[in-house]
Specification:
The mean pLDDT is 92. This protein has two domains: 193 residues, Rossmann fold; 145 residues, 3-Layer(aba) Sandwich (Rossmann fold), CATH 3.40.50.1400. It has 353 residues and is α/β, with parallel strands linked by helices. Helix 1 packs across helix 2, helix 4 crosses helix 5 and helix 6 packs antiparallel against helix 13. Helix 5 links the parallel strand 3 and strand 4. The chain is built from 14 helices and eight strands. The strands form two sheets. It has a four-stranded parallel sheet, with helices on both faces. A four-stranded parallel sheet has the order 6-5-7-8, sandwiched between helices.
Amino acid sequence: MPDYDAFLLVSFGGPEGPADVMPFLENVTRGRGVPRERLAEVAHHYRLFGGMSPINRHCRDLLAAVEKDFAAARVDLPLYWGNRNWHPHLADTVARMTADGVRHAVAFVTSAYGSFSGCRQYLDDIGAARAKAGPDAPRIDKIRHFYDHPGFIEPFADATLAAIGSLPPGVKHDAPLVFTAHSVPEAMAAASGPAGGLYQAQLSEAARLVAGLVSQAEGRERDWRLVYQSRSGPPSVRWLGPDVRDHLAGLARAGARGAVLVPVGFVSDHMEVVYDLDIDAAETAGRLGMALARAATPGAHPRFVSMITELVRERMGGQAAGGTAGAMRPSRDLCHNGCCRVSAAAARAGTAT
């Protein structure tokens, strides 16, 4: 039975002011040959929001909620937080954990799915942070994928129903659900999981489960589809599609008067949600004459917070993985070292902002 003595929240990180934007983007893209003009284009997205990404605020809210839930559940673990790309940097946090005498931590990563950028890269960064901290660095175990956990699915279903309700009366009845996730290069997607294709399979299962709960609540089936967003990188590299904007155009041609975006690939709001969906996709819908609503991400939803506590207790108790809402088996707690590995070229293409 693991003897954990700390909890670590690991996230992507984001700028918290105009002066942070370019240094943050340079961190994200370092060594990947992203043109300066592309960074300037993305920097403009952040500056539309005062140079701030919402992700760090969401992490602070989540940590505060987890701390309260841990106390209610009598989970006695100090909480730490480290980001891959901005303050508080993961390496600095692991160094502080080492100085504090932490020996064995359980880590929750703000990504529900298996893929290079959603899982393997976090594992590699945790390993690099431990190596930098030295031989006394704590062992850090990452919690399994939670894409099909009721604590992830139910908040999305609640948010989807609320988004449907916000549409105009003449539109809401027939509006299809458009589930979105961050696109990645096809080569990266094919390398996800032991047998490949894990990323798409997990996303499809999560979308199916959310749509199922919505159908139960409404007493009827509602059309839905999984699409992708936030593609970047050179045009010569094939990425997962269709793109959300192309899909909205297809719905409009088919006569749809509205749609509900469900960002099922995301745990909380960050720039790919608030810009790529709330601005870019919304502008596309406006040009098409479509009403558009966007479901909220789980963020610090109480059921999502309680899920984290459940997953931590699952690990602390040495129990077999449980807590799934669908037919797929729970993900393994430990990934083998070759899982979701990709070529250097695919990694550069897939993580270019």
